[in-house]
Write a structure and sequence with these properties.
The protein is mainly β and about 120 residues long. About 0% of the residues lie in helices and about 50% in strands. Strand 7 and strand 8 form a beta hairpin. It is globular. The termini are far apart.
Length: about 120
């Protein structure tokens, strides 16, 4: 079993920055390398949407148009950590943000519990 724990959410003013972290853990010897990782978010009253994703090698990234140029996904495989740097935050970024890891095999998709981000003045 793999566990993902998000942290770093909170209240921030419009235009501010926040860095979300996703700590991955598992059985002895576990490494998050080999997993594609994705940040999703769910705003109040809306469905889950993809925010940013990164291939298992880290060579490829994709971003939602709404966050492109403002958000950056990164990973540190040695620390089993995934990050989402969020700059120039807007009120519409308010959501619960979820970390996802996928090794592209059956029963090998994992979700964190989410961390809440509120952008408000």
């Amino acid at each position: 079993q793999v566990q993902l724990v998000e942290s770093g959410g909170g209240l921030v003013h419009p235009g501010g920055s926040l860095r979300l972290s996703c700590a991955a853990s598992g059985a002895p010897g576990f490494t998050v390398s080999g997993y594609a990782v994705t940040w999703y978010r769910q705003a109040p009253g809306k469905g889950r949407e993809l925010v940013a994703s990164m291939s298992s090698t880290g060579a490829f990234t994709n971003y939602a148009d709404s966050v492109k140029g403002r958000f950056t996904i990164s990973r540190d495989n040695a620390k089993n950590m995934v990050y989402l740097q969020m700059n120039s935050l807007k009120s519409e970024d308010t959501a619960v943000y979820y970390c996802n890891a996928d090794c592209n095999a059956a029963d090998c998709v994992y979700w964190g519990q989410g961390t809440r981000v509120t952008v408000s003045s």
